[in-house]
Specification:
The complex is a heterotrimer of chains A (483), B (112) and C (95). By secondary structure, chain A is of the alpha/beta class. Chain A has a domain of 244 residues: Alpha-Beta Complex (Amidase signature (AS) enzymes), CATH 3.90.1300. Helix content of chain A is 39%, strand content 14%. Chain B has 112 residues and is mostly loops. A two-stranded antiparallel sheet of chain B has the order 1-2. With 95 residues, chain C is an all-alpha fold. Chain C has a domain of 39 residues. Chain C is built from three helices and no strands. Chain C is flat and about 55 Å long. The chains are: A alpha/beta (483), B little secondary structure (112), C mainly alpha (95). Chains in contact: A-B, A-C, B-C. The interface between A and C is large, with 71 and 51 residues.
Chain lengths: 483, 112, 95
């Protein structure tokens, strides 16, 4: 059951081959065996799971369940879950218990999904290796001496190791796609505004999007369809009709136009390039037409991103002052000392670095030269994509310049930020994008990024599903996790 | 300072605070009853609980436009934006004010 | 260097963070390398380009003026490190 798709698992539940409790126990036992070793979970949620198991079984027994009823999942620990800790991977929120559920949590609860745990993550979703968690780095199931990627590294490791079929994640500049690629699974970030941000602890508000990590594009489609939808509590929520993203999965991709960015391909190391070209060749074999496209401003995306994201982060994280919730220092000598020491103790090094970069970029005299300028670059990049999508249906590109790297391999921030070169352009443009596993280099997984035009999630999932119907990379499991 | 007083012109700016007659707050659906007991009308948003988001009160927008028309403002903006004014202060739980600096709803004083 | 020790100290004050004497040079160096990287945004001319604040360029939706939240007082104060029945407790501000 553990590596089967949602459709099969759901059939087994509805035909009573297995109960929701039995299904839960399979994954809960696997979590007990492996979660500690991988350090992929922050808190398990057995009490909540028990309530949800009863409710889900009742839905199934009364024939009111959907395909997601009874399916276990893990939430990235930045989605607020009522009466359960939401730590954001930070000492600041180690003991924070939100009084409400995030909208996406609500949406998934509504159909009877069963919450097993909260997943480890880079502190406040800032990082590309999951080494920035207060609760320690997540290990990659394919090689325990290597990173899982970040910031949704816990979510990716959970799914890769078969500790849950589904995990939620969030993606600000690549935080779903890059760990999905490095752990050999499938992950999708929808268009900005598709999934409500209400109840997702904010990092960079104009970029943050919730999404899904799973074992296949098909599973992503089922969960994403339920997760997304207009939410009046998020005034940036896209006012579009709810969509069933699994609708077009079976369509042929014949004559679909796939854009290739030559400059990005040429910048890849030989191993990753070969695997990526092979995957693109496969899309061509399936009938897609390749078209070369250019994104002339995309080379400035990392620079613009590391102005916009830190600027928004420095503002969003100002609320953490130790008074209303969160870490408070011992024996403050006055109010200012309380603020400063609580923040200095509560935040980790990378979060503080980004707060400082953002504070600097927003400070008097720099606002126009940095934040405003970066927003102008952002528009140029979005326009580049608009031009490209006048010619193609989707763009196929690399996810990460490398496979999973060793712990402590990237000590200086700028080299870590360069991990994001292929993921931040589509983030800045707010476009839907995903990563699918396409092969191995040095026994480590490689992902392919698919980028769609605004609100074209179903096109992405269609091409990804067709690729996965014809290949087996997505069903590969790291050694030691088969049983 | 120069002794030549004619070099200086007196300019007086007024910052006027007015409470609007609305049932709920600017960005959240909590009461605005005057004299209610302390902390009894605080939304999760106003206490800056992580994950909460502001949603603007339509009536406030209508009042702002009416105010603009009443004082003879030259321009009522067709496109308006909010800005954050970032600073730490005990009465500002989020660490910023949601305000309008660059593209206010009423963006011009009456012409002299 | 674009960011020196003095600037780090000023930024820390604005951000309500403290920086120890032992770390200040390392922080200055790391911030400097980040600023050097982000300065590439100046390589392209952006005259007459409208800044993009929201990728959807969407119109914000408004909320009807109705009360939807009742008192959250107990919920909120229970989350605080120090509170009494009605208030958050903080170190004395005014003697």
């Amino acid at each position: 059951m553990k590596f089967k798709g949602i459709k099969q698992i759901s059939q087994a539940l509805h035909s009573k081959d297995i109960s929701v409790q039995e299904l839960h126990d399979i994954y809960a036992n696997r979590q007990k065996q492996s979660a500690k070793q991988l350090n992929c979970l922050i808190n398990r949620t057995p009490q909540l799971a028990q309530q949800q198991i009863v409710a889900a079984q009742a839905l199934i027994d009364s024939h009111q369940g959907s395909i997601l009823t009874g399916i276990p999942l893990v939430h990235k620990d930045l989605f607020c879950t009522k009466d359960i800790n939401t730590t954001c991977g930070s000492r600041m929120l180690e003991n924070f218990v939100a009084p409400y559920d995030a909208t996406i949590v609500d949406n998934l609860n509504a159909v009877g999904m069963v919450t097993l745990a909260k997943a480890n993550m880079d502190e406040f979703a800032m990082g590309s290796s999951n080494e920035n968690s207060y609760f320690g780095a997540v290990k990659n199931p394919w090689d325990l001496s290597r990173v899982s990627g970040g910031s949704s590294g816990g979510s990716a490791a959970v799914v890769a190791a078969g500790l849950a079929p589904i995990a939620t994640g969030s993606d600000t500049g690549g935080s779903i796609r890059q760990p999905a690629a490095l752990c050999g699974i499938t992950g999708i970030k929808p268009s900005y505004g598709r999934a409500s941000r209400y109840g997702m602890v904010a990092f960079a508000s104009s970029l943050d999007q919730a999404g899904v990590l799973a074992r296949s594009a098909e599973d992503c489609a089922y969960v994403l369809s339920q997760m997304c939808g207009y939410d009046a509590k998020d005034s940036t929520s896209a006012q579009v009709d709810k969509e069933d993203f699994s609708q077009n999965l079976q369509q042929s991709i014949k004559r679909m136009k796939v854009g290739i960015i030559r400059e990005w391909m040429d910048g890849l190391s030989a191993g990753i390039k070969a695997v990526t070209e092979q995957a693109i060749q496969k899309l061509q074999d399936l009938g897609a037409e390749l078209v070369e496209v250019e994104l002339p401003t995309a080379h400035l995306a990392v620079s613009a991103y590391y102005v916009i994201a830190p600027a928004e982060c420095s503002s969003n994280l100002s609320r953490f002052d130790g008074i209303r919730y969160g870490h408070q220092c011992q024996n403050p000598k006055d109010l200012n000392d309380l603020y400063v020491r609580s923040r200095t103790e509560g935040f980790g090094e990378e979060v503080k670095r980004r707060i400082m970069v953002g504070t600097w970029a927003l400070s008097t005299g720099f606002y126009d030269a940095y934040y405003l300028k970066a927003q102008k670059i952002r528009r140029l990049i979005a326009e580049d994509f608009n031009q490209a999508f006048a010619q193609v249906d989707i763009i196929a590109a690399p996810v990460s310049p490398e496979v999973a790297f060793k712990f402590n391999a990237k000590k200086d921030p700028v080299s870590m930020y360069q991990e994001d070169i292929y993921t931040v352009p589509s983030s800045l443009a707010g476009l839907p994008c995903m990563s699918i596993p396409i092969g191995m280099v040095d026994n480590l997984p490689v992902g392919l990024q698919l980028i769609g035009h605004n609100l074209q999630e179903s096109v992405l999932l269609n091409i990804a599903h067709q690729y996965q119907q014809d290949t087996n990379w997505h069903s590969q499991v790291a050694e030691g996790y088969h049983e | 300072m120069s002794s030549n007083k004619t070099q200086w012109e007196t300019v007086i700016g007024l910052e006027i605070h007015a409470q609007l007659k609305t049932a709920s707050k600017l960005f959240a659906g909590t009461n605005t009853t005057y004299g209610a007991s302390p902390n009894s009308q605080v939304s999760l948003l106003e206490a800056a609980v992580p994950g909460t988001l502001p949603v603007f009160n339509e009536k406030v927008l209508r009042y702002a436009i009416r105010f603009g028309l009443a004082v003879g403002a030259k321009v009522i903006a067709k496109e308006s934006r909010f800005d954050r004014k970032n600073y730490f202060y005990p009465d500002s739980p989020k660490g910023y004010q949601i305000t309008q600096l660059h593209h206010p709803i009423v963006n011009m004083a009456p012409s002299p | 260097m674009l960011i020196n020790r003095k600037e780090v100290e000023q930024i820390a004050v604005l951000a309500n963070l403290s920086v120890s004497e032992a770390d200040i040079d390392a922080i200055a160096n790391s911030l400097d390398s980040v600023v050097e990287m982000i300065n590439h945004i100046n390589e392209v001319n952006t005259d007459n380009i409208k800044p993009m604040a929201n990728p959807m360029d969407a119109v914000q939706r408004l909320r009807a003026d109705v009360v939807t939240e009742t008192s959250n007082k107990d919920k909120l104060l229970s989350m605080a490190n120090h509170a009494d029945e009605d208030y958050y407790l903080v170190p004395t501000v005014v003697e």
